[in-house]
Specification:
7 helices; five-stranded antiparallel β-sheet
């Protein structure tokens, strides 16, 4: 049961991370998530899970039962054959992070003055390569599902959002060379590894799938206003520009939108709605731009044909979109369940290494 609990906690962390990304987010990303859960009712040792994602594709996995970093996609198997030291190196790193997390859990339990019981420790870090070639990086630790300490790579120093993290902040900021190394990793080495992984997984990670766009409508009974929902299905990559336009200009008034979310087949879906006066219907368009489209798409709004049936259709579509998002995340997790120095045979990978992750709190 401990393994199941750890999987659920990690799934929650992944779901938040995947759903937080907004429309037009990073073009490509390399992210790692590690979770350690101490549940005395399930044993005295914490259960540890660590996974790596390229974009939103799970590509490596490690847990305290298998004690090995394993590939989760076929292109990583080829990568491993071309880099034979990779798996042993990554496994060593992950075991080190697992061991460190055990000590951190006990330290933080005492620092927070907590009794023994269920406690969680998390590490999340990675880098992003934007469409305009700009780079971003992040590195943070969490405790009990909340942010404990984060790395500001611009400074580079640590930021303590809670009083209990101030001891850790002072301890780690007393090692400026270590902080500079983390900054270098996020801005350079992580990006290099992201590009390497993309070259191996290009058939899936750099493909394009054309979005299918539909507009559903209904009339509001109480005031006669119209609700129009633009649904964008089955597109890849996730970068997409979808908006409501009025007379050719972006229109934000009375508009709502969901998050770009994964489908079970690895593509994405998105929706946005607008509430308008039916007399001005002809002025509005659903505007969509995507790599899979040869040119931007503008869909005009049509008069609702049956208010009641359309209401059911729209509610059904929104509910279906939410269900698909959950299914997509679950399938990603279940279906496909690192060190870089002189020779590039392993990424800092699933534990991030000799950087911050081997520094105890």
């Amino acid at each position: 049961m401990a393994r199941s609990s750890a999987s659920l906690w990690l799934l929650g962390l992944l779901a938040i991370a995947l759903w937080e990304s907004s429309v037009g987010a990073s073009s490509h990303s390399l992210k790692y998530f590690s979770t350690s859960i101490l549940d005395p009712s399930q044993g005295q040792q914490p259960h540890f899970v660590s996974v790596g994602y390229v974009d939103d594709q799970l590509f490596i996995h490690y847990d305290s039962h298998s004690q090995r970093v394993k590939p989760q996609v076929s292109w990583m198997e080829k990568f491993g054959k071309d880099n034979p030291q990779y798996w042993d190196s990554q496994t060593q790193i992950s075991r080190g992070t697992e061991e460190m997390s055990r000590g951190d859990l006990e330290t933080l339990r005492i620092r927070y003055n907590q009794s023994e019981g269920l406690h969680t420790w998390q590490l999340m870090y990675g880098c992003e390569l934007q469409r305009d070639k700009s780079k971003r990086g992040f590195y943070q630790y969490g405790y009990e599902g909340r942010t404990f300490i984060t790395f500001d790579k611009e400074t580079p120093t640590w930021v303590a959002p809670v009083p209990q993290a101030q001891i850790t902040q002072r301890k780690w900021d007393a090692l400026p060379a270590q902080n500079q190394y983390i900054k270098s990793y996020l801005e350079e080495e992580c990006i290099e590894w992201l590009e390497k992984y993309l070259s191996y997984g290009k058939e899936t990670l750099q493909r394009t799938e054309t979005p299918k766009v539909t507009v559903s409508s209904r009339t509001e009974v109480e005031d006669g206003m119209e609700m129009h929902i633009c649904q964008v299905h089955g597109f890849y990559p996730r970068d997409i520009d979808a908006s409501w336009r009025r007379d050719g200009e972006v229109w934000l008034e009375e508009t709502f939108h969901g998050s770009v979310a994964p489908n079970a087949d690895g593509t994405y879906h998105y929706w946005l709605s607008i509430r308008i006066d039916p007399k001005e219907r002809s002025r509005y368009r659903c505007h969509v731009e995507h790599d899979g489209l040869q040119k931007p798409l503008d869909l005009e709004l049509k008069e609702p044909t049956n208010s009641k049936s359309n209401l059911g259709l729209i509610i059904g579509c929104v509910v279906a979109a939410l269900v698909l998002a959950c299914i997509g995340i679950l399938v990603f997790f279940k279906k496909r369940q690192d060190d870089y120095k002189a020779a590039p045979t392993s990424d800092r990978g699933s534990s991030s290494s000799d950087q911050g992750s081997n520094q105890t709190v």
